[in-house]
Amino acid sequence: MKSDRYGERINLACRYIEANLDSDLTLDVICEKAFFSKYHFLRLFSAYMGVSVYQFIQQMRLKRAAYQLAFYPSMSITDIAYQAKFEHAESFSRLFKKRFRMSPSQFRKSPDWLLWHRHYHHIENRAEPDVKVDIRDLTELSLAVVEHHGSPKAIMDSVMTMIQWRKSTGLSPVKKSKTVGIVYHDPKSVPENEFRFDIGAEVQAPIPTNEFGIINKTLAGGRYAIARHFGSHDQISDTIYAMYRQWLPQSGEELRGDPLFFHYLNRFPDVAEHELMTDVCLPLSPLSP
Predict the structure, then answer these.
(1) Which residues of the chain form CATH 3.20.80.10?
(2) Pick the residue with more confidence: 19 or 126?
(3) CA 252 – CA 238 distance, rounded (Å)
(4) Torsions phi, psi of 161, nearest 5?
(5) What pLDDT band is residue 4 in, cutting at 50, 70 and 90?
(6) Which distant-in-sequence residues (6+ apart) come within 8 Å of 262 by Cβ?
(7) Which CATH class is domain 5-119?
(8) Taking a C-beta distance cutoff of 8 angstroms, is the pair 155, 148 a contact?
(9) pTM
(10) Which ranges in the chain are annotated with CATH 1.10.10.60?
(11) Torsions phi, psi for 277 (to 5 deg)
């Protein structure tokens, strides 16, 4: 397949923007980082991404701000606005409400992730990555699980339920316990109402019945093919498909009947979105004796 050199350079520009949201992102600097003439860059960016570069920068800053509102309750709306490069909290609040149909304080109290996803559903240009795959034997893992049934766009509601349970019980400290996502369906291949995804937190003992609806499950051990995904969870399917299309056919391995899972090694917005690391784990059949 012929390489799309323009698409690759647009990706360079996007990665630079995502990595430098706190900086003054000028057109000259972005063009220099992506090896583009500024006379063509704006049109090319819009053609590939479906939004202007200035809209993309604003969207990425608002995206981070939405996560900060939801997950950093001690961070003031004024500080979030300044970090998003707004001179005044009032102008930030007006634009946020225009985009999400609710004020920052309303979003903080009750985030509407469905509306948030609709806002961020724009054209994205992402090349399928080359993946490095390791095969490892993993031990069985005891989990406390939120079972998400329904639209993938509402999955952050289930994530917030898990966060609230962890904070209120202390039974699965985030810094000491693994966090995983068990993927039962490809969201592009099933109706939204049939989509299933588990958010799991490692526990040392079975958890009691609770008001959050968190239940006990076990993640099977055994042989897994593991590839590390770097960057936004929104593009993690690129790594999954690369494992299926590039690695699996030439590996000689057979998949077993368990679902794949994600092991989240860090979290946004604790780190910048481009610094996220997630292990994609495909279950493999045992080796023949």
Answers:
(1) 133-283
(2) 19
(3) 22
(4) -60, -45
(5) low
(6) 180, 181, 183, 236, 278, 279, 280, 281
(7) mainly alpha
(8) yes
(9) 0.69
(10) 5-119
(11) -130, 130
29-85 per-position pLDDT tens digit: 998 888 877 666 776 787 678 788 888 999 899 999 999 998 998 999 999 999 999
* pLDDT band (50, 70, 90) for residue 263: very high
**Single-letter amino acid code for the residue at 64:** R
Greatest Cα-to-Cα distance within the chain, rounded to the nearest angstrom: 68
pLDDT digits (tens, 9 = 90+) for 202-250: 999 999 999 999 999 999 999 999 999 999 898 898 898 888 878 887 8
Say what angle helices 38-49 and 53-71 make with each other, to 10 degrees. Answer: 50
Would you say 261 and 180 are in contact if contact means Cβ atoms under 8 Å apart? yes
Where helices occur in 76-126 by DSSP H, the ranges are: 77-83, 89-100, 104-109, 113-119
The sign of the dihedral angle between the CA atoms of 278, 17, 23, 30 is positive
In CATH, what class is 133-283? alpha beta
List, in order, residues 6 or more apart from 62 with CB less than 8 Å away: 84, 95, 96, 99
pLDDT of residue 123: 44
Peptide bond into 269 cis (omega under 30): yes
Q: Which residues have CB under 8 Å from 92's CB, separation 6+?
A: 65, 77, 80, 81, 84, 86, 104
Sheet of strand 215-219: strand arrangement: 133-138, 222-230, 277-283, 260-264, 179-183, 196-202, 141-149, 215-219
At 232, list the tokens. 């936004």
